[in-house]
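Students often ask why inverse folding is considered easier than folding. One informal answer: many sequences map to the same fold, so there is more than one right answer. In these notes we will look at a single instance of the problem. The structure comes first.
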């Protein structure tokens, strides 16, 4: 009976002592990755040279502080409306300045987004593919130091939740 009591105390004391140790000496911090620090994997049609680590410094799209860019060319009306609705959640969830910019070749209804940049088709392709490296993702997160911090699929609640979480982490980091 005495052995069982000792084992029970040990079994309860060990997790409590680990928890107390981690609470006192551990640091609960998350980091959002910085893309293109070692190399840039640009599409083959981009004939630009890139400095490493890569920063977005030659864009014609104004970047003010932490920015989220939504490249919306070719989206259907329903997908565009859902994407803008999901992006408006970013403003509603955060209590910090984040610039949301819609970029397209068409004249579009902003739907509550702050900024709109309309470009011709060639400039749009250059910006989305060669400067922001969007590939199949239409949302790009750029931090205040003009480094690309994330790519997200449009219209997905799960992706916007991830964007909001990563923005919260980023805004606490700076």
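Output (designed amino acids):
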């Amino acid at each position: 009976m005495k052995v069982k009591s000792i084992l029970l105390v040990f079994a309860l004391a060990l997790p409590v002592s680990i928890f107390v140790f981690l609470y006192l000496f551990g640091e609960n911090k998350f980091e959002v990755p910085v893309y293109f620090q070692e190399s840039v994997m640009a599409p083959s049609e981009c004939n630009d040279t890139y400095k490493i680590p890569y920063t977005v410094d030659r864009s014609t799209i104004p970047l003010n502080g932490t920015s989220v860019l939504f490249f919306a060319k070719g989206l259907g009306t329903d997908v565009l409306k859902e994407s803008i609705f999901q992006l408006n959640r970013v403003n509603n969830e955060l209590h910090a300045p984040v610039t949301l910019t819609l970029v397209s070749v068409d004249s579009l209804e902003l739907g509550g987004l702050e900024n709109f940049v309309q470009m011709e088709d060639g400039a749009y392709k250059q910006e989305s593919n060669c400067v922001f490296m969007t590939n199949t993702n239409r949302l790009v997160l750029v931090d205040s130091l003009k480094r690309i911090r994330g790519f997200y699929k449009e219209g997905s609640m799960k992706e916007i939740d991830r964007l909001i979480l990563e923005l919260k982490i980023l805004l606490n980091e700076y």
